[in-house]
Amino acid sequence: MTDHYDSHRAYQQRLGLTSALMAFSLWGFAPLYFKLLEDVLALEIIAHRIIWSVVILGVVLGLRHRVSVFTHLKVPYQTLLALSISGAIIGLNWLIFVYAVNSDRVLSTSLGYFINPLVSVALGMVFFKEHLNGLQVLAVALAAAGTLYLTVQVGDFPWIALTLAFSFGLYGLIRKQLDVGPMVGLFWETLIVLPLAGLWLFWRGTQGLLTAEFDGFSDGLLMVGTGAITVMPLLLFAAGVRRLNLSTIGILQYIAPSLSFCMAVFLFKEPFSADHAITFGCIWSGLLLYTYSSWVNRPRV
User: Fold this and answer.
1) Global confidence as pTM
2) Mind listing the pLDDT tens digit for each residue in 131-146?
3) Which residues touch 244 (CB under 8 Å, ≥6 apart)?
4) Are 298 and 133 in contact (CB under 8 A)?
5) Angle CA(42)–CA(280)–CA(27) in degrees, nearest 5?
6) Which positions ≥6 away from 131 have C-beta within 8 Å?
C-alpha cells in the first residue's frame, strides 16, 4: 500500500514538473508572438485573448466530456467567486505584459518575472507557513534591494515589473487553493469576463476605433492564436502548481524571464545600462542563493 502511494506521488510530481517546465518555456517565447501584433492596441489583444480562450476551452472540454460537459463544469458558488478574482488578476497580468512587449519594454517583463519567484516564496511563507532560512531571507532582501536601486538611480518606478511579479504570484496563490481542474478553472475565469470583452470590442467597432486589420487569413489566424498561446501555458501552469509547492514553482520560473531577457537584449536590442546590470545582478544573486539553499536543504530520500 505504501509503495503504491509513493509511486503515485512520484508520478504526480513528475507530471507537475513536466507541465511547469513546458509552461514557462512557452511564456519565455511569448514576446516573439506578440511582436507580430505590435500595431494592435493592447486592450484589443486582451479582448481577443479572452474570447478565443473561451472558444478553444469550450471545444476541448466538449470533446473530452461530451454529454457530461455541463455536469463537469459545475463548481460551488464560493469557487466561482474566487475564480472571478483570479480571472481579474490574470487579465491584468496579460494586459501589462502585452503593453510592455508592444512598447519595446520586454526587459521590464523579464525583470518582473525574475522578481516573481521570490514573490512566490514570500507568499508561500505568509499563507502556507513555508519556512525560510537565513539564506532564503537574504535572497528576498537582495531582490528588494535591486528593485529599489533601479527606482532610485533611474528615477522611474518599475511598475511594469512589479505589477507582473505580484499579479502572477497572487494568481498562483489563489489557484493553488481551489479544488478545481485547470481547464475548468481557466474556462470560468475567461467566461466570466467574456461579456465585457465582447461589448468593449463591439463598442470600439461601432466607433471605428479598432486597430486590428483583418486584411487576410493570417491576420485572423494571429488573433485566434492569442487564445491558443494563452490557454496552453496556463493549463500547464495550473496543472503544475497544483502538484508542486510554491517554492519549487518559484525556482522553475527562472526559465521564462531568462528567455525573455536574452531576446530583449540580443534580439530586440533594448537598452541595458550599468544600472540595469546592478539590478539584475542583485536579483540573480538572490535567485542563486535561494536555489542553493533549497538544494542543500532538500529532503533526502
Assistant:
1) 0.84
2) 777 888 888 888 888 8
3) 13, 16, 17, 20, 252
4) no
5) 40
6) 125
Residue whose C-alpha cell reads 538544494 in the numeric block: 295
What nine digits make up the cell of 224?
485566434
Residue found under cell 503504491: 4
Burial class (CB in 10 A: 0-12, 13-18, 19+), 66: exposed
pLDDT tens-digit map of 253-286: 788 888 999 999 999 999 888 888 998 999 889 8
Sign of CA dihedral 291, 293, 296, 299: negative
Q: Are 260 and 111 contacting, i.e. CB atoms less than 8 angstroms apart?
A: no
HEC string for the chain: CHHHHHHHHHHHHHHHHHHHHHHHHHHHHHHHHHHHHCCCCHHHHHHHHHHHHHHHHHHHHHHHHHHHHHHHCCCCHHHHHHHHHHHHHHHHHHHHHHHHHHCCCHHHHHHHHHHHHHHHHHHHHHHHCCCCCHHHHHHHHHHHHHHHHHHHHHCCCCHHHHHHHHHHHHHHHHHHCCCCCHHHHHHHHHHHHHHHHHHHHHHHHHCCCCCCCCCCHHHHHHHHHHHHHHHHHHHHHHHHHCCCCHHHHHHHCCHHHHHHHHHHHHHCCCCCCHHHHHHHHHHHHHHHHHHHHHHHCCCCC
Q: Is the pLDDT of residue 299 over 60?
A: no
